[in-house]
Amino acid sequence: MSVILVTGALGNIGSRVVRNLVSAEARVRALVRRPADAKAKLPASVEVVQGSYDDAASLRAAMEGAARALFVTAGPALARQDAALADAAKAAGVGHIVKISVLGAREGSLEIPAWHRAGEQAIEATGLPWTFVRPGSFASNALNWAPTLRAAGKAFGAFGAAAIPVIHPDDIADVAALALTASGHERQIYELVGPEALTAAQQVATISEVTGKPFEYVNVPDEAALQGMLGA
Q1: Which is nearest to 204 in space by CA: 223, 219, 194?
Q2: 129 within 8 A of 99, measured Cβ to Cβ
Q3: What CA–CA distance (Å, rounded) separates 143 from 132?
Q4: Order of strands, edge to edge, in the sheet holding 188-192?
Q5: Of 16, 30, 142, 150, whose Cβ has the fewest other Cβ atoms within 10 Å?
Q6: Strand 188-192 relative to strand 163-164: parallel, antiparallel, unpaired?
């Protein structure tokens, strides 16, 4: 059975994709920075290799013999990292790249979608078959509210009345794993959203209903939210 390389294998999406692939009895190779940590957290059948997105030699070694690869990158350098991964994949003869991108990825858009679109373009430039999985906001981001919900019964944010069709990471991972294991997904873009657009207040109300606790969403000014994020 062919090897499937997974980057970001300990992350929110990558770890779920690994779990799905192992359940499907695929041969999985995980590219990680700290192998000792990864071996303790990943299934025993997963081959763990050490590497860095900034180390071209380690990327080429990780890609060697892999038939397909999942790219999970984040942050301002993600386009450069996608390009480095794509170059290594092409040199190693990888047959198909699946990238976790973002909903609305396009040139000239907001920073994060623009970064991801640049990464997609770097992958396209290799000429290798690709699949771009573009999820919307993760439902699991609500876990960031847990500390203040526990401490004060309140969740704070600057979302206003914006309604977002949040999606569970499990659903994103299911799509990525399918694209990695089945044919027919080459050169396809899958834009993924949840079943219902919810405001932050509605999300908190749902958490309150499920837990039976009187939680409340409190909207804060943009400047206060910015200072809070910088402080964190």
Answers
A1: 219
A2: no
A3: 26
A4: 47-50, 27-32, 3-7, 66-71, 96-100, 130-135, 188-192
A5: 150
A6: unpaired
Q: Name the residue type at position 221.
A: P
How far is residue 110 from each of residues 77, 104, 135, 183, 193, measured CA to CA in Å? 15, 9, 15, 32, 19
Nearest to 19 by CA among 37, 1, 44: 44
Can you tell me the distance from the alpha carbon of 196 to that of 212, in angstroms, rounded to the nearest whole number?
22
CA Rg, the chain, in Å?
Answer: 19
Cα separation, 88 vs 94, whole angstroms: 9
Q: Is 173 exposed, middle or buried (0-12, 13-18, 19+ CB in 10 A)?
A: buried
- Number of Cβ within 10 Å of residue 156's Cβ equals 18
SS3 95: coil
Which residues share a beta bridge with 10?
none
* pLDDT tens, residue by residue, 33-77: 999 989 899 999 999 999 999 999 999 999 999 999 999 999 999
The residues, ordered by sequence, that sit 6+ positions from 105 with a Cβ below 8 Å of its Cβ are: 113, 114, 116, 117, 120, 132, 134
